[in-house]
Amino acid sequence: MCGIIGYVGSQEALPVVIGGLQRLEYRGYDSAGVAIINRANQIQTRRSVGKLSNLTEALAKENGTGPHGTLGMGHTRWATHGKPTEPNAHPHRGPQDLVVVVHNGIIENYIQLKKDLVAQGYDYPYNSETDTEVLAHLIEKFIARDGLSLEQAMLRTLEVIKGTAAIVALSVNDPDKIVAARLSNAGGVVIGYGPTGSGENYVASDIPAILPHTRQVSFLDSGDVASISREGVIFYNQQGETITKEIVTINTDAITAAKGGYKHFMQKEIYDQPQALTDTIRGRVNLETATVSLEDMRFSAEELAAIEKVTIVACGTSWHAGLVAKFIIEELARLPVEVDYGSEFRYRDPILTPNHLLVAITQSGETVDTLAAIEEARVKGAKIASIVNVVGSQAARISDGVVYMQAGPEIGVASTKAFTSSLADLLMLGIYLAQARGALSKERAAKLLQALIEIPKHVADLLADDKLYQTMARAKAHSQDFLYLGRGINYPVALEGALKLKELSYIHAEGYPAGEMKHGPIALIDEGLPVVVIATQDKVYTKVVSAIEQVKARDGWVLAIATEGDTELASKADEVIYLPPTDPLLTPILAAIPMQLLSYHIATRRGCDVDQPRNLAKSVTVE
Ligand code: G6P
Fold first, then answer.
1. What's the half-sphere exposure (Cβ side, CA atoms, 13 Å) at 153?
2. Please, which of 277, 289, 501, 607 could form a disulfide with 599 given CB 3.0 to 4.6 Å?
């Protein structure tokens, strides 16, 4: 999720690099760094923790005595491995100071690579906890020991690394070049061409970084390497053969490009979900052993076995994820689970003991009510785990264990990809707790994990059908009220559907348990009230179908969210959206997608600001 920019030309590189980083800061903002090659062919680096402004302020204090040169690169970090500290900030240097590297992605086999380097006698200490630093060691070894050029060293590096990577490297041995590479389809690399004869060329993780300078670009595919110099750009494929690349002209403005071609950040984030889910699951699921590994859950087997009760605290959309988790953890781990709003929890003197596990769910890790609940639990001696998206945030720092979401920066105020990513985390947490307590058979765990790894593909399939929601939004955008119904594990999804609609479109919407409709909301039903009902195949299906009958008998309009293969609902509901079959514990991830798309399209038809709805904030840091 990190941002990268590189420049070679005749201007001072630093302002170009900083300008690019400013346009990329939405990708990550826990630390930033630059590397510039000066006239004496030395690599000068500067790094700062926190927002980019910390780095620019530090550079300003140098009063022009800082890095100077016409070739350089920069990086803004969204931490995945290692806390947001200066040693973990990019660029990372090779041990002999010949190479610097910036990277976006995850090097899955970095521990093995470190061991291999030691076994080869290339045994140098590391300065960071990152997966990236090993790249600097590897590239440097290929240059210093094997006499390779920077391009060849990069190609050799691609042969041995596993995972996802956009890598940019500089070397004092090749001081007139920037070498970039891409591995896997995640983490793009774009090359920008300066005006003909200018001798200027660029590389970046995203188009907005370089748009003020050029609209002529080429894209790297997985396995490609680019050597960027004042003379031009040479491309290599994985076999090291030179290849030509199409030059594409970008006709868009910077902000549109930041949104990756989407109209709004929220729309982009909805469409990010297959990748966010893949990243969240990646490296944690072992299908052979039917186990999960949650690397930052620092509890002993004895501590896990002693847990008697789980209390989940959260706010907003994260609270809805908590309600889903109650079904997951109770069913799998057979532990009683209580779910509370952060804002309610501490004011009623909650009962907590050292054998309680408090699970805080918070995308930002900074919501003050959730933090206060964590603090309350700490005072009472409970164990604390948090499900967090922002690495190094307050919630992550004050918890005993963390499960990160890996959803990347979520900019739209209404949460989308963090919701579904947290649900994936919570399923893995449920399995983890269940296995620690011996409550889950290997067969059931294996089936669940298989279903989990299929989820990103199912989400991608659901997202392909956007037209349907546009049509529905056209028909229903003028409604005054909406009712959302669900039962069992899908009841929280009904709440989330109603929340998404009201916060984005300002239409009054209520989420209700389908079985409770007859105790009140049924009085609202007439031909003007759209009712969205989640009626997937599970043990309460027939009961939910009865609720649909009751709505139809009173002339309500029903959109049913059903499971593919359902033959009953087409004749009962006005519209049906079909979800791919999955384990019922995973249905909420899929059912969330129609909720998001419907709300998004209704809100945009009503002319609402979907990225920054009125009165709301992304991170609520006041009580
Ligand atoms: C705000 C946001 C919501 C979010 C809630 C909790 O209300 O607008 O989208 O769900 O805070 O945020 P957290 O970062 O703790 O998950």
1. 30
2. 501
Specify the pLDDT at position 553.
92
Ligand 1 site-directed mutation target among 269, 270, 312, 315, most atoms within 8 Å of CB: 315
DSSP-assigned letters across all residues of 430-488: HHHHHHHTT-S-HHHHHHHHHHHHHHHHHHHHHHT-HHHHHHHHHHHTT-SEEEEEE-G
The verdict on pTM exceeding 0.85 is: no
Q: Which of 515, 510, 520 is nearest to 488 (CA)?
A: 515
Average pLDDT of 430-457? 97
C-alpha span between 196 and 230 (Å, rounded): 11
DSSP 27: G
Query: CB under 8 Å to 18, separation ≥6 — which residues?
Result: 34, 52, 55, 56, 59, 74
Which whole number is the average pLDDT over 298-319? Answer: 96
The Cα 558–Cα 345 span in angstroms is 36
**Amino acid type, 427:** L
Mean pLDDT of the 292-303 span: 93
Residue whose C-alpha is closest to residue 472's, from 594, 611, 591: 594
From CA 425, how far away is CA 4, in angstroms rounded?
Answer: 28
* Ligand 1 binding residues, C-beta < 6 A: 315-318, 362-364, 367, 370, 413-415, 616, 618-620
Calculate ∠ Cα 551-323-447, nearest 5°: 95
Of the candidates 349, 342, 346, the residue with the CA atom closest to the CA atom of residue 312: 342
Q: What is the DSSP string of 99-151?
A: EEEEEEEEETTHHHHHHHHHHTT-----SSS-SSHHHHHHHHHHHHTT---HH
The two three-digit tokens of residue 2, written as one number: 């990190």
Q: What's the average model confidence in pLDDT over 561-584?
A: 97
Q: Look up residue 460 and give its two tokens.
A: 């991608």
- The C-alpha atoms of residue 428 and residue 423 are separated, in whole angstroms, by 9
